[in-house]
Design brief:
The chain has about 200 residues and is an alpha/beta fold. It has seven helices and nine strands. Helix content is about 40%, strand content about 20%. The protein has a five-stranded parallel β-sheet with strand order 2-7-1-8-9, sandwiched between helices. The structure holds adenosine-5'-triphosphate and ligand LQESDW3C.
Length: about 200
């Protein structure tokens, strides 16, 4: 799919659409974002900074910028984070501000895959961003996906599922909901939203 040229307004240069993708743990945010990356290289996807340790197979600078607590503090103190939060009561995650501005100024549709707290911060600071909620087909399927991923201990899974209940209740805050039944269908729905005229809200 070829994106339309970004809209121009009378009060500034062209800016493309910023989309926030949020939703409970293991709903498939990362998987859908990876499918978007594979199929639509024109879409820019933010690489977050985090203080959590890499999982097997995760590459620094690709999946996350893995930073120390001190480095994260420095980024926050310098005002270099568009948003950040402590997620699942364990680690800090944040969106580096500079690359987002560069992508939008270059006219690329930009995607942030972040948690509910971060989505709320972006809603305050960039109300023009489109807020998309990714929802599981059912609670049972969400648990199946979390267990099936096999990357957390039982204790960590319980903590994530507790957060997930609050996150599911926040669905009405979002502009659009996509149900992640099938990865490629969800990715296509997301790209359709990302490449629509940013002046027109769905
Ligand atoms: N549509 C789908 N159908 C079946 N399995 C899926 C689907 N989407 C994702 N999965 C699987 O669910 C698991 C969780 O996906 P993923 O890690 O992308 O979730 P996430 O929302 O990014 O999670 P977290 O917020 O914990 O980082 C993975 O094993 C992934 O392969
Ligand atoms: N507020 C932010 N949340 C983020 C960011 N990057 C990722 N996340 C969210 O963290 C959880 C856990 O991720 P995991 O990789 O440890 O499974 C998940 O909900 C992500 O969406 C960010 O920059 N800011």
């Amino acid at each position: 799919m070829t994106p339309p040229a970004p809209s121009r307004t009378t009060d500034g240069p062209a800016r493309s659409r910023l989309v926030v993708l949020a939703g409970p743990t293991a709903v498939g945010k990362g998987t859908v974002a990876a499918a978007v990356r594979d199929q639509h290289p024109d879409v820019w996807i933010s690489v977050s900074a985090t203080t959590r340790k890499p999982r097997p197979g995760e590459v620094d600078g690709v999946h996350y910028h893995f930073v120390t607590e001190a480095e994260f503090d420095r980024l926050v103190d310098a005002g270099d984070m568009l948003e950040w939060a402590v997620v699942h009561k364990v680690a800090r995650y944040g969106t580096p501000r500079g690359p987002v501005d560069e992508a939008l100024s270059a006219g690329r549709p930009a995607l942030l895959e972040i948690d509910l707290q971060g989505a709320r911060q972006v809603r305050d600071s960039m109300p023009e961003a489109l807020q998309v909620f990714l929802k599981p087909p059912s609670w049972e399927e969400l648990v199946r996906r979390l267990v099936g991923r096999g990357t957390e201990t039982e204790e960590e899974r319980e903590r994530r599922l507790a957060t997930a209940r609050d996150e599911l209740a926040a669905e009405p805050e979002f502009d659009v909901t996509i149900v992640n039944h099938e990865v490629h269908e969800a990715a296509d729905e997301l790209v359709t939203l990302m490449t629509a005229d940013p002046q027109v809200r769905p």
